[in-house]
Please model this.
Amino acid sequence: MSFVNVQGLNKSYGQTLVFRDIDFAAERGELVTLLGPSGCGKSTLLRCIAGLTPVDAGSILIEGKDIVPVAPQKRGVAMVFQSYALFPNMTVEQNVAFGLKMQKVEAGEVAKRVAEALALVELTGFEARYPRQLSGGQSQRVALARSLVTRPRVLLLDEPLSALDARIRKHLREQIRRIQQELQLTTIFVTHDQEEALTVSDRIVLMNQGQIVQSGSAEALYTAP
Ligand code: ADP
Ligand code: ADP
Model:
Protein backbone atom coordinates (compact mmCIF):
# COMPACT_ATOMS: atom_id res chain seq x y z
CA MET A 1 0.00 0.00 0.00
CA SER A 2 1.42 3.37 -1.04
CA PHE A 3 1.42 6.43 1.21
CA VAL A 4 -1.13 8.15 -1.07
CA ASN A 5 -3.55 6.04 -3.10
CA VAL A 6 -6.11 7.55 -5.44
CA GLN A 7 -8.45 4.77 -6.54
CA GLY A 8 -11.14 4.84 -9.19
CA LEU A 9 -11.53 8.60 -9.12
CA ASN A 10 -14.32 10.12 -11.18
CA LYS A 11 -14.67 13.86 -11.60
CA SER A 12 -16.67 16.13 -13.88
CA TYR A 13 -17.37 19.84 -13.83
CA GLY A 14 -20.95 19.90 -15.14
CA GLN A 15 -20.74 18.43 -18.65
CA THR A 16 -16.92 18.49 -18.66
CA LEU A 17 -15.55 15.06 -17.79
CA VAL A 18 -12.08 15.37 -16.27
CA PHE A 19 -11.42 11.83 -14.94
CA ARG A 20 -13.10 8.50 -15.31
CA ASP A 21 -11.85 5.84 -12.96
CA ILE A 22 -8.23 6.98 -12.61
CA ASP A 23 -5.70 5.55 -10.19
CA PHE A 24 -2.63 7.33 -8.89
CA ALA A 25 -0.18 6.64 -6.08
CA ALA A 26 2.72 8.32 -4.29
CA GLU A 27 5.16 6.62 -1.93
CA ARG A 28 6.20 7.97 1.46
CA GLY A 29 8.89 10.62 1.07
CA GLU A 30 8.65 10.61 -2.71
CA LEU A 31 8.48 13.67 -4.97
CA VAL A 32 6.18 12.72 -7.85
CA THR A 33 5.77 15.12 -10.74
CA LEU A 34 2.51 15.17 -12.66
CA LEU A 35 3.49 16.32 -16.14
CA GLY A 36 1.03 17.03 -18.90
CA PRO A 37 -0.43 19.70 -21.18
CA SER A 38 -2.66 22.48 -19.95
CA GLY A 39 -6.22 21.31 -19.36
CA CYS A 40 -5.40 17.59 -18.90
CA GLY A 41 -6.59 17.57 -15.27
CA LYS A 42 -3.45 18.03 -13.16
CA SER A 43 -4.84 20.84 -11.01
CA THR A 44 -8.12 19.06 -10.63
CA LEU A 45 -6.38 15.98 -9.23
CA LEU A 46 -4.57 18.15 -6.65
CA ARG A 47 -7.79 19.96 -5.79
CA CYS A 48 -9.55 16.65 -5.21
CA ILE A 49 -6.75 15.51 -2.88
CA ALA A 50 -6.78 18.84 -1.03
CA GLY A 51 -10.58 18.77 -0.76
CA LEU A 52 -11.00 22.03 -2.66
CA THR A 53 -13.41 20.42 -5.11
CA PRO A 54 -15.72 17.46 -4.49
CA VAL A 55 -15.08 14.10 -6.17
CA ASP A 56 -17.94 12.28 -7.90
CA ALA A 57 -16.75 8.77 -7.02
CA GLY A 58 -13.65 6.94 -5.87
CA SER A 59 -11.41 7.03 -2.85
CA ILE A 60 -8.28 8.92 -1.83
CA LEU A 61 -6.33 7.06 0.82
CA ILE A 62 -3.54 8.59 2.85
CA GLU A 63 -1.74 6.11 5.07
CA GLY A 64 -4.58 3.69 4.36
CA LYS A 65 -7.43 5.96 5.43
CA ASP A 66 -9.95 7.44 2.98
CA ILE A 67 -9.84 11.23 3.26
CA VAL A 68 -12.74 11.95 0.90
CA PRO A 69 -15.17 12.40 3.83
CA VAL A 70 -12.61 14.40 5.86
CA ALA A 71 -12.77 18.23 5.95
CA PRO A 72 -9.97 19.89 3.90
CA GLN A 73 -8.20 21.42 6.90
CA LYS A 74 -8.12 18.07 8.69
CA ARG A 75 -6.55 16.04 5.88
CA GLY A 76 -2.92 16.85 6.69
CA VAL A 77 -2.54 18.13 3.14
CA ALA A 78 -1.14 21.55 2.18
CA MET A 79 -1.22 23.15 -1.26
CA VAL A 80 0.86 25.88 -2.91
CA PHE A 81 -0.60 27.62 -5.96
CA GLN A 82 0.93 29.30 -8.97
CA SER A 83 -0.19 32.70 -7.69
CA TYR A 84 0.96 32.98 -4.12
CA ALA A 85 -2.12 34.81 -2.77
CA LEU A 86 -0.55 36.19 0.39
CA PHE A 87 -2.66 38.44 2.61
CA PRO A 88 -1.49 41.94 1.60
CA ASN A 89 -2.19 43.56 4.96
CA MET A 90 -0.30 40.99 7.00
CA THR A 91 3.44 40.75 7.51
CA VAL A 92 5.40 37.72 6.39
CA GLU A 93 5.29 36.39 9.93
CA GLN A 94 1.52 36.90 10.20
CA ASN A 95 0.96 35.28 6.80
CA VAL A 96 2.91 32.19 7.80
CA ALA A 97 1.32 32.01 11.27
CA PHE A 98 -2.25 32.40 10.01
CA GLY A 99 -3.11 28.72 9.55
CA LEU A 100 -1.77 27.75 12.97
CA LYS A 101 -3.69 30.55 14.68
CA MET A 102 -6.86 29.29 12.99
CA GLN A 103 -6.09 25.88 14.48
CA LYS A 104 -5.70 27.55 17.88
CA VAL A 105 -2.11 26.42 18.28
CA GLU A 106 -0.55 27.96 21.37
CA ALA A 107 1.46 31.20 20.80
CA GLY A 108 4.89 29.88 21.80
CA GLU A 109 4.49 26.89 19.51
CA VAL A 110 3.33 29.17 16.66
CA ALA A 111 6.43 31.36 17.05
CA LYS A 112 8.72 28.33 17.05
CA ARG A 113 7.15 26.74 14.00
CA VAL A 114 7.00 30.01 12.04
CA ALA A 115 10.71 30.54 12.71
CA GLU A 116 11.47 26.98 11.57
CA ALA A 117 9.43 27.36 8.38
CA LEU A 118 11.04 30.71 7.50
CA ALA A 119 14.49 29.21 8.09
CA LEU A 120 13.68 26.33 5.73
CA VAL A 121 12.83 28.76 2.90
CA GLU A 122 15.80 30.99 3.80
CA LEU A 123 13.69 34.01 4.78
CA THR A 124 14.83 34.48 8.36
CA GLY A 125 14.97 38.25 8.86
CA PHE A 126 11.97 38.95 6.60
CA GLU A 127 9.37 38.52 9.36
CA ALA A 128 8.22 42.16 9.49
CA ARG A 129 8.00 42.77 5.74
CA TYR A 130 4.76 43.08 3.84
CA PRO A 131 4.02 41.15 0.62
CA ARG A 132 4.39 44.32 -1.51
CA GLN A 133 8.01 44.55 -0.29
CA LEU A 134 8.88 41.10 -1.60
CA SER A 135 9.97 39.85 -5.02
CA GLY A 136 7.95 37.16 -6.78
CA GLY A 137 10.38 34.46 -5.71
CA GLN A 138 10.36 35.62 -2.10
CA SER A 139 6.55 35.73 -2.12
CA GLN A 140 6.39 32.16 -3.37
CA ARG A 141 8.83 31.11 -0.63
CA VAL A 142 6.51 32.70 1.95
CA ALA A 143 3.64 30.73 0.41
CA LEU A 144 5.75 27.59 0.74
CA ALA A 145 6.55 28.42 4.38
CA ARG A 146 2.84 28.93 5.01
CA SER A 147 2.25 25.36 3.85
CA LEU A 148 5.25 23.82 5.65
CA VAL A 149 4.31 25.41 8.97
CA THR A 150 1.26 23.14 9.20
CA ARG A 151 3.58 20.10 8.99
CA PRO A 152 1.55 18.42 6.25
CA ARG A 153 1.73 14.70 5.55
CA VAL A 154 1.41 15.53 1.87
CA LEU A 155 2.51 18.69 0.04
CA LEU A 156 0.78 19.62 -3.21
CA LEU A 157 2.52 22.09 -5.51
CA ASP A 158 0.44 23.42 -8.42
CA GLU A 159 2.80 24.98 -10.97
CA PRO A 160 4.57 26.80 -8.13
CA LEU A 161 7.28 28.20 -10.40
CA SER A 162 5.30 29.23 -13.47
CA ALA A 163 4.83 32.86 -12.50
CA LEU A 164 8.57 33.42 -11.94
CA ASP A 165 11.40 34.30 -14.32
CA ALA A 166 13.85 31.63 -15.42
CA ARG A 167 16.77 32.27 -13.05
CA ILE A 168 14.58 32.43 -9.96
CA ARG A 169 12.68 29.41 -11.18
CA LYS A 170 15.82 27.28 -11.15
CA HIS A 171 16.83 28.48 -7.70
CA LEU A 172 13.41 27.87 -6.17
CA ARG A 173 13.17 24.48 -7.85
CA GLU A 174 16.43 23.44 -6.19
CA GLN A 175 15.27 24.85 -2.88
CA ILE A 176 11.98 22.94 -3.02
CA ARG A 177 13.86 19.73 -3.75
CA ARG A 178 16.31 20.30 -0.89
CA ILE A 179 13.52 20.99 1.62
CA GLN A 180 11.47 18.05 0.37
CA GLN A 181 14.43 15.70 0.83
CA GLU A 182 15.41 17.16 4.18
CA LEU A 183 11.88 16.68 5.55
CA GLN A 184 11.30 13.44 3.60
CA LEU A 185 8.01 15.06 2.62
CA THR A 186 5.66 13.22 0.29
CA THR A 187 5.12 15.75 -2.49
CA ILE A 188 3.08 15.94 -5.68
CA PHE A 189 4.45 18.59 -8.02
CA VAL A 190 2.34 19.68 -11.00
CA THR A 191 3.97 21.18 -14.05
CA HIS A 192 3.64 21.38 -17.83
CA ASP A 193 7.41 22.03 -18.10
CA GLN A 194 9.38 18.94 -19.05
CA GLU A 195 12.74 20.32 -17.91
CA GLU A 196 11.31 21.12 -14.49
CA ALA A 197 9.94 17.58 -14.21
CA LEU A 198 13.21 16.02 -15.30
CA THR A 199 15.33 17.87 -12.76
CA VAL A 200 13.18 17.81 -9.66
CA SER A 201 11.51 14.39 -9.41
CA ASP A 202 11.95 10.92 -8.03
CA ARG A 203 9.27 9.84 -10.47
CA ILE A 204 7.29 11.37 -13.31
CA VAL A 205 3.66 10.60 -14.06
CA LEU A 206 2.62 11.61 -17.56
CA MET A 207 -0.96 12.73 -17.87
CA ASN A 208 -3.03 13.45 -20.95
CA GLN A 209 -6.74 14.19 -21.28
CA GLY A 210 -7.54 12.97 -17.79
CA GLN A 211 -5.61 9.74 -18.12
CA ILE A 212 -2.32 8.55 -16.74
CA VAL A 213 -0.31 7.60 -19.77
CA GLN A 214 2.97 6.47 -18.22
CA SER A 215 4.93 6.55 -14.97
CA GLY A 216 8.61 6.08 -14.20
CA SER A 217 11.90 7.71 -13.33
CA ALA A 218 13.20 10.46 -15.65
CA GLU A 219 15.78 7.99 -17.02
CA ALA A 220 13.18 5.30 -17.65
CA LEU A 221 10.79 7.66 -19.44
CA TYR A 222 13.24 9.60 -21.55
CA THR A 223 15.98 7.14 -22.42
CA ALA A 224 15.59 5.68 -25.89
CA PRO A 225 15.06 1.91 -25.72
P1 ADP B 1 -4.52 21.36 -15.82
O1 ADP B 1 -4.22 21.61 -14.39
O2 ADP B 1 -3.87 20.10 -16.35
O3 ADP B 1 -4.26 22.54 -16.69
P2 ADP B 1 -7.27 21.43 -14.98
O4 ADP B 1 -7.39 20.40 -13.93
O5 ADP B 1 -7.14 22.86 -14.58
O6 ADP B 1 -6.08 21.02 -15.95
O7 ADP B 1 -8.52 21.33 -15.96
C1 ADP B 1 -9.04 20.09 -16.44
C2 ADP B 1 -10.31 20.36 -17.23
O8 ADP B 1 -11.33 20.79 -16.37
C3 ADP B 1 -10.16 21.46 -18.28
O9 ADP B 1 -10.99 21.09 -19.37
C4 ADP B 1 -10.69 22.69 -17.56
O10 ADP B 1 -11.19 23.64 -18.46
C5 ADP B 1 -11.79 22.09 -16.72
N1 ADP B 1 -12.02 22.83 -15.47
C6 ADP B 1 -11.10 23.07 -14.49
N2 ADP B 1 -11.65 23.76 -13.47
C7 ADP B 1 -12.94 23.94 -13.81
C8 ADP B 1 -14.05 24.58 -13.18
N3 ADP B 1 -13.94 25.16 -11.96
N4 ADP B 1 -15.24 24.57 -13.81
C9 ADP B 1 -15.37 23.99 -15.02
N5 ADP B 1 -14.37 23.38 -15.69
C10 ADP B 1 -13.18 23.34 -15.10
P1 ADP C 1 -4.90 25.67 -13.46
O1 ADP C 1 -4.52 24.88 -14.69
O2 ADP C 1 -3.75 25.92 -12.53
O3 ADP C 1 -6.12 25.14 -12.79
P2 ADP C 1 -6.50 27.54 -14.85
O4 ADP C 1 -6.15 28.88 -15.38
O5 ADP C 1 -6.86 26.42 -15.75
O6 ADP C 1 -5.27 27.13 -13.96
O7 ADP C 1 -7.67 27.69 -13.79
C1 ADP C 1 -7.73 28.75 -12.88
C2 ADP C 1 -9.08 28.69 -12.15
O8 ADP C 1 -10.16 28.68 -13.09
C3 ADP C 1 -9.26 27.42 -11.33
O9 ADP C 1 -9.97 27.77 -10.15
C4 ADP C 1 -10.10 26.51 -12.19
O10 ADP C 1 -10.86 25.61 -11.40
C5 ADP C 1 -10.96 27.50 -12.94
N1 ADP C 1 -11.30 27.00 -14.30
C6 ADP C 1 -10.46 26.44 -15.19
N2 ADP C 1 -11.10 26.08 -16.32
C7 ADP C 1 -12.40 26.45 -16.13
C8 ADP C 1 -13.58 26.35 -16.91
N3 ADP C 1 -13.59 25.79 -18.13
N4 ADP C 1 -14.72 26.85 -16.40
C9 ADP C 1 -14.73 27.40 -15.19
N5 ADP C 1 -13.66 27.52 -14.38
C10 ADP C 1 -12.50 27.04 -14.84
In short: The pocket of adenosine-5'-diphosphate (ligand 2) is lined by residues 43, 82, 158-159 (CB under 6 Å). The first helix runs from residue 42 to 50.
